[in-house]
Design goal:
It is a single chain. By secondary structure, the chain is an alpha+beta fold. It has a single domain (8-187), classed as Methylpurine-DNA glycosylase (MPG) (3-methyladenine DNA Glycosylase, Chain A, Roll), CATH 3.10.300.10. The chain has 4 helices and 9 strands. It has helices at residues 15-21, 110-117, 123-127, 130-137, and strands spanning 26-31, 34-47, 75-80, 83-90, 97-108, 149-150, 153-156, 164-167, 184-187. Strands 1, 2, 3, 4, 5, 6, 7, 8 and 9 form a 9-stranded antiparallel beta sheet that branches. Helix 2 (110-117) packs across helix 4 (130-137). Its EC number is 3.2.2.-. InterPro entries: Formyl_transferase-like_C_sf, MPG, MPG_sf.
Length: 195
Amino acid sequence: MSLKPVTASFFQQPTLELARSLLGMLLVKETEAGTASGWIVETEAYIGPEDRAAHSFGNRRTPRTEVMFGPPGHAYTYVMHTHCLINVVSGPVDHPQVVLIRAVEPYTGTELMYERRGRDKKERELTSGPGKLTKALGITMDDYGRPLFESPLYIAEGKQLGPVETGTRIGIENSGEARDYPWRFWIGGNRFVSK
């Protein structure tokens, strides 16, 4: 399978549709150490400015959230609890919305993932969470703002992985009614989905 980036037009779909469409796609990161990739198996949509769980709630515009106000298809990376997380910017310009990539199933570069995450890790532990997958793939804050339709960090064509399930998002207890929105999507039965 050739690791070829999708076109920029792939990202020009409503955020909830994009969150679903990303499932089964391949997230690829090329580094000097090598290339690592994984099938996306879990995502969460954040539809600010009305979404209390979104960093752009209330149209909050800061140096950190600036990329969210730009065109879709770029990486919004940020650090939470010392872990870098990666989001796909979605929505039209000046409508700051994102899709968080929560988990991937390793595809290429597994050796590299073990080097980055630790040899003692079980395979499932390599990428079964948003902070784990960025470390395994070598995604860092230096990737902030990168277009996700060209090297070295990109989304490539994927495959059907299984049935899509939906539910509430994780770790946003203090966000009022937004904590109940069913905006988390995952591949049913996939062992790399975060717990």
